Amino acid sequence: MLDTKYIRENFEEAERRLSTRGGSSFLEGFKALDQKRLMLLKESESLKALRNSVSEEISRIRDKSEAQEKILEMRSVSAKIKELDEMLKKLDEELGLFLLSVPNLPHPDTPIGASEADNVEIRRWGKFPEFSFAPKPHWEIGENLRILDFECGAKLTGARFTLYRGAGARLERALINFMLDLHTDEHGYTEVLPPFMVNRESMTGTGQLPKFEEDLFKMTDPDYFLIPTAEVPLTNMHRNEILKRSDLPLSYVAYTPCFRREAGSYGKDTRGLIRQHQFNKVELVKFTHPSDSEAELEKLTLHAEKVLQLLELPYRVVGLCSGDIGFSASTTYDIEVWLPSQNCYREISSCSSFGDFQARRAGIRFREQEKSKPEFVHTINGSGLAVGRTLVAILENCQQEDGTVIIPSQLRKYMGGTEKIC
RNA sequence: GGAGAGAUGGCCGAGUAGGUCGAAGGCGCUCGCCUGCUAAGCGAGUAUACUGGGAAACCGGUAUCGAGGGUUCGAAUCCCUCUCUCUCCGCCA
Predict the structure, then answer these.
(1) Nucleotides, chain B, CB distance < 7 Å
(2) Which of A45, A273, A292, A365 is deepest in the core (most CB within 10 A)?
(3) Residue pLDDT, tens place only, A353-363
(4) Which residues of A are catalytic?
(5) Distances (CA, A) of A129 to A166, A172, A341, A393, A401
(6) C-beta atoms surrounding A112 within 10 Å
(7) Smallest CA–C1' separation from A370: which nucleotide?
(8) pTM assigned to the model
């Protein structure tokens, strides 16, 4: 959420920065709503001040018959206040919903652009594997080795669900453990195992709601949602809290499954593991001091890259342009891993800084000094990494001509010493 | 699922015949005094949001005692609904 005062005082600038995201004006209608609200607020509050002071006078009058006139007068004042407050409540709701639907301002350094095509490659790492044969797509490799069963997933649930079997299931679990160990032992993150369902307030705190409900799987009886990413529970851990300055930055890592409706992506990546309704992810989340957030985003991105480096998978880092960054993000780097069968890089991690956008929605603050006013922290998160897609990258990059797959050396101890899936 | 208890400020904890309660007291914390050091002691201060004024320090208004609604001139205190926590019983991985 953007700061109301900022919008009020820098309306043109806010409009201009938001417009780089593309689409129509995001702030249309704000001024009228805001001004009307302030007017009603002022009127209601001055009547309340009157009522408070007269009520106090009444309390000091011993003879109640003398107070009768004032009581009658205040009765009508109260009625008026009630009327004003009802209008005010409606306006507040309207304005609140409005503000919750305005995306974050892109960071000044975010490249301006309309779409994916305007993203900027920042760096590349690793060497492409060379094949003396035509590399197969991971779904063929997985089916041939009987470690991925797409038909069974479809039978059990439906499209975009997959059953892993044997060494496939083990490999997925190995990757989860490998990533968690790396981030906790080497990078200093605190491991968390959160609930996989959250309530509406949590989804609103990180920005999935109110705008993107159709992307979520929801429960109806209790009004809960399956998390689309661990970002949601992790960031909301500190919702409505004032953190200690000395505790910042706080760094958390969590493995969770993620559930996404993938509405609007019919026909995209229908084969294989790339786009599933349920997938595993290890997520990194940081709460930082505002002045540290840029540096912490760089660090977090490197932490995610480290996973690919240790697995010896080639990748590149891309800076997303203003038209491609997500609703809540101010800066985003995507890490894309090389997939030989598709002859291109595919997203395997998305590392973003949100400035105070999520912190303001979720009420996550700190005090610079003991006595100073609470300020919003900055939040940062990134995948470290998407586990299913990592498994895809391993199958494709490490495949052999005979259909077997060599397991990256760093992972073998998590596979009970297995060197090859055959 | 059944029975009961509770939800107050950073924490603990008063406050129910409705008014002077943003809320006693204690702890913690901050500043000052005192004191070889430490501890103890003394004094002052110590919520948040919105809003008005001011360059600022700061001053004023409104709201907030789990959430929402009601009664009333006036509610932490009375009434209703909901949520959460705890205890006991049942069930269960």
Answers:
(1) 19-20, 29-30, 48-52, 61-63, 69-70, 72-74, 84
(2) A273
(3) 999 999 999 99
(4) 260, 275, 347, 350, 389
(5) 26, 22, 11, 11, 13
(6) 12
(7) B30
(8) 0.92
